[in-house]
C-alpha cells in the first residue's frame, strides 16, 4: 500500500479551505443571481403564508381574549389539550376521521394508479387524450357544485336515482340523511372529482419507462399481465411510495368543505370530523385557543404519520422523501 505523504495532502487541504472562503460564496451568488431571483417569489410565499402564521400555534397554550390581545392573554399551558382529550366528543371525532381516512386509503389512493395503468394500455392516441380530458374535467368543478349535483340526484323529492329505485324496488333510500350512506357518498364524490386528476403524476412516471424492456419481455414470451407486473409496476413503485408518504400527512384532513356541505342534523354523529369541529368551535363559538389546540393536535399526528411511514419505507429498502 502506498501512503500519501503530508506534502501531497496539503494542496487538497488548501483547495478545501479556498472553497469555504466567503468570497467564493458571494461569487456563486452573483453568478446565479437570476436563478436566485426566480426563487424569491416562491420563498416569499412560504415565509409569509406558511412560516410566519406558525407563530399563531401559541394560541393553543393561552386563554386568548381578543380585547386583551395576544401577548396579554393568560398562559394556560396544556389546559386546552386536557380539556379536549377529556371531552367525550374527542373519541367520536377520532373515530369519524380515522374511518374516512382509512376508506380514502383503501378506495381512493389506489384508484388513480389503476386508472393510469389502464390508460397506459390505450394505444390509440386520440382516444387516450379524449378519455384524459373527460376524467380531468371534474377536478375543476367546485365542491359546492358537486354537492348540489349529489343532492339533485339522490334526494327523495324528485331525485333521479331515487325515482329509479322507487320504480325498481318500490321504495326510496334516504341517502342524504342516512348515517350508513354518508361515508360511501364522501368517497364516491372524491373518486369522481379527483381520480382523473390524480393520474397525471402516474402517467408521467409511466412515460419514463424504457420501451426496450417491453420489447425484451415480448421476445421472452411475456404477456401483457406479466409485463405489467414485472416492468410497469416496479418502474412506478418509487412514485407510489413517495405519494403514499405524502398522503399520510393528510390522513386526518378529510376535506372541510365537502364534509360540511354533505353533513346535516340527521347524519352529524358520523359526519363531524376535526376540521368541521374546529370551524364550529373556533369560528361560530369564538373558542380560538381551544380550536387552535385541536388543529395543532391534528397537525402533530400528521407529522408523526409522515415520519413513521418514511421510516418504514426506508427500512423496506426504498428511498422515502428524506
From TrEMBL:
Family as reported in the entry's similarity comment: Belongs to the binding-protein-dependent transport system permease family.
Name this polypeptide is given: Multiple-sugar transport system permease YteP
Record has Transmembrane as a keyword: yes
Regions that span the bilayer: 34-52, 100-122, 134-154, 228-246
Keywords tagged on the record: Membrane, Transmembrane, Transmembrane helix, Transport
Provenance organism: Paenibacillus konkukensis
Record's bilayer topology term: Multi-pass membrane protein
Primary subcellular site in the record, as a coarse category: membrane
UniProt-annotated location(s): Cell membrane; Membrane
InterPro entries, per database record: MetI-like, MetI-like_sf
ABC transmembrane type-1 domain: residues covered: 94-309
